[in-house]
Specification:
The protein is mainly alpha-helical. It is built from ten helices and two strands. Strands 1-2 form a two-stranded antiparallel ribbon. The longest helix is centred in the C-terminal third of the chain and has 32 residues.
Length: 255
């Protein structure tokens, strides 16, 4: 899956919302998706997520991540659809010997699982591209009372993902220049090609973690109480959005 994109500065409503409001939005999407068992309803939630990304002017940036999630959801359908035996038979993958039975219930169940996964996880790239990491740390530590070490670990892991992806691309380019054949559309062959190249990436990540640990220790990380220069406060539009989220969630539960 493509790496999570970083914060994109903009002047949209989504960018101005408090990180708590955006986190509650992701929770509301998660709740609504698990309330419905109809593919059309969950697809509507997914479309609403894409609409939020478009209105926030980050659709172009989050689209590669969503496409990666879509490919993973298709794999999820393939793994699930053959294990559901209930329902009427639609067709067989190999009709002459009746292998690979596909039923209407299995198709609907697999579609629900795939769309649910896609709709719930598609909120994460949108959250990351419209929220600064420092604001997330401030909210988690001051408002949600999460220990700073855990908040820092969470944010740092997210920030390392694009770095690791860039380094992996550099390793692939270096290997290609040496005549290493890595151009293939077969996902299984691609996997066997990438696995050996993960060793230099692992060594590089260990070195980066060691340097960061030394840097944090020199700066007195965790030595005493912390204060934050930036204060992230709730505003009127945050409360309005939260009220709308609560109302929509309750309506979906009642339906």
């Amino acid at each position: 899956m493509p790496a999570l994109v970083e914060y994109i500065p903009a002047n949209t409503v989504m960018h101005k919302l408090n990180p708590i409001t955006k986190i509650l939005w992701t929770i509301a999407v998660l709740t609504i998706c698990f309330m419905f068992n109809q593919p059309a309803a969950i697809l509507l939630v997914l479309i609403s997520n894409l609409a939020v990304a478009a209105l926030s002017k980050v659709l172009k940036q989050v689209l590669p991540a969503i496409i990666g999630l879509f490919i993973f959801s298709l794999l999820l359908i393939l793994f699930q659809i053959f294990f559901v035996t209930e329902g009427n038979t639609l067709f067989y993958i190999i009709p002459f010997v009746n292998i690979g039975r596909i039923t209407d219930v299995g198709l609907e169940y697999s579609a629900v699982l795939a769309l649910r996964m896609l709709a719930t996880t598609s909120t994460i790239p949108i959250l990351m591209t419209t929220t600064q990491m420092k604001d997330i740390v401030v909210v988690l530590t001051e408002k949600c009372k999460v220990p700073f070490k855990y908040a820092f670990m969470f944010v740092t892991s997210l920030r390392f993902i694009p770095t690791f992806m860039e380094e992996m691309d550099q390793i692939l380019q270096a290997q290609k220049s040496r005549g290493y054949d890595s151009d293939t559309r077969n996902p299984f062959k691609k996997l066997f090609i990438i696995i050996p190249l993960a060793i230099p990436l692992l060594i590089s990540s260990v070195k980066k973690a060691e340097k960061m640990a030394i840097s944090m220790e020199v700066r007195g990380f965790g030595a005493g109480p912390r204060s934050h220069y930036n204060q992230v406060d709730m505003k009127t539009k945050d409360y309005a959005v939260i009220i709308c989220l609560i109302a929509i969630t309750f309506i979906s539960i009642l339906i």
